[in-house]
Design brief:
142 residues, alpha/beta, four-stranded parallel beta sheet, two-stranded antiparallel ribbon, 3 helices, 6 strands, 25% helix, Metallo-depent_PP-like, Calcineurin-like phosphoesterase domain-containing protein
């Protein structure tokens, strides 16, 4: 049995890029108590380096927390999906060294939290795969 029960807080659609004249990347503070934070898309624009400053600050201020990031449909604005994916993977690699692997970008992969909890992310494609009653999580592979 794990020492601490995993707790999750899910946050989405922060749109820190707005308003465009004064984005909220530096002023917005997340107030959370869970030991796992899932940023479920539309947090900010990946072309703006202040998004990554926000993520670094969040990791620094919450040292006992893992942060999972799932790409939304707004992160790639002003760039391509492939570039957005690459920028988040690059940040994940940088964060691995700086923050001990507490940042995980999830896209077409899974993260096993413990023997009972797995986070599964298809990266905007799961809805295309789902076909109704014949679809089961056990049969889904990436």
């Amino acid at each position: 049995m794990p020492l601490f029960t995993p707790q999750f807080q899910i946050v989405s659609d922060l749109h820190l890029e707005t308003p465009l004249t004064t984005p909220q990347y530096t002023s917005f503070r997340l107030n959370f108590q869970a030991n796992n934070l899932i940023l479920l898309g539309d947090i900010g624009l990946v072309v703006n380096c202040r998004l990554f400053d926000f993520l670094r600050r969040t990791l620094e201020q919450n040292r006992g927390c893992r942060v999972f990031y799932i790409l939304g449909n707004h992160e790639p604005y002003q760039t391509t999906y492939e570039q957005a994916h690459g920028l988040l993977r690059d940040f994940e690699q940088d964060a691995k060294e700086a923050f001990g692997g507490r940042f995980k970008f999830l896209c077409r992969d899974r993260y096993v939290v413990d023997k009972n909890i797995t986070i599964l992310c298809d990266g905007l494609g799961l809805a295309k795969t789902y076909s109704g009653a014949s679809w089961f999580l056990d049969s889904y592979t990436m």
